[in-house]
Amino acid sequence: xxxxxxxxxxxxxxxxxxxxxxxxxxxxxxxxxxxxxxxxxxxxxxxxxxxxxxxxxxxxxxxxxxxxxxxxxxxxxxxxxxxxxxxxxxxxxxxxxxxxxxxxxxxxxxxxxxxxxxxxxxxxxxxxxxxxxxxxxxxxxxxxxxxxxxxxxxxxxxxxxxxxxxxxxxxxxxxxxxxxxxxxxxxxxxxxxxxxxxxxxxxxxxxxxxxxxxxxxxxxxxxxxxxxxxxxxxxxxxxxxxxxxxxxxxxxxxxxxxxxxxxxxxxxxxxxxxxxxxxxxxxxxxxxxxxxxxxxxxxxxxxxxxxxxxxxxxxxxxxxxxxxxxxxxxxxxxxxxxxxxxxxxxxxxxxxxxxxxxxxxxxxxxxxxxxxxxxxxxxxxxxxxxxxxxx
Length: 391
Description:
alpha/beta; Rossmann fold
């Protein structure tokens, strides 16, 4: 009896007595699927869960239990079912596929929307009978056997999806190249600015930053993609500056021990902060933000920096140039001299930093908000469910 009630509440729209129409009136049933995430993908899915629930959609999120603990999907109006989809291929993958398939049978959604290739693969192998949307958030960076496996996964996911959404234009092009029949630029809302809770002086004092010392900030997962080893090596050069800048890196990840050893060996003025819940305070207290990644789509910290008025130096990779426009200083990836020069120039010129911050705020104001993103996404869902109904 409980299962029958649950299906009535969360099943396909027609089973719930909901009339599915176009665009902003669409109020169907959506299953969101994600793999392990502590950053941008999870935050994006949480935003979608909240917006879709508020719009009257029945939302089920399938993902690792840790994602519910971190992003609290159920507090945002969604049902949550734990499905352990690790960040990398694992022997337990088929168990995840079976769990997704079981949820498909129980929930009977109108649309399945997976986020990231790992979640997309699990959803594709579960063989949903409804339209499958997969958003690509990242590009593969590995060569050799791992790179070939990743390309195979891309091909399977692209060809299994009804629609592929790319978080940046290069991802859309890549999806088309590996066989997606319908690849589009993903509607992605700008992150809601984080609230500041403490004064700049108290934040800097708590971090042990001396008065007058420039504070340089980067936020992201400690992973080779972020090229934080480059930032550490260049930061070691800045010891010669007076006062010496302090570099803070907020985030967790597999590169922590290697970075800590590098910082110690080079005596670089860098502190690894680990995971932080006060990123808004850190942005407000910093003088300059830095992104050194070798690839990004819509990099979360870049968005938060520009929205928060923090001057930013970032690598011109992936979706970053189209994201930041003229609101950041762009440098080439893997270019230590370019990073060094850009940072030194901005630290020496407060007026240039202020002008850059102003351009950054102006650029951030052009990004779509939650309402626009939700409207566009529901248009896509309405199109697909209408197409499926006619078929």
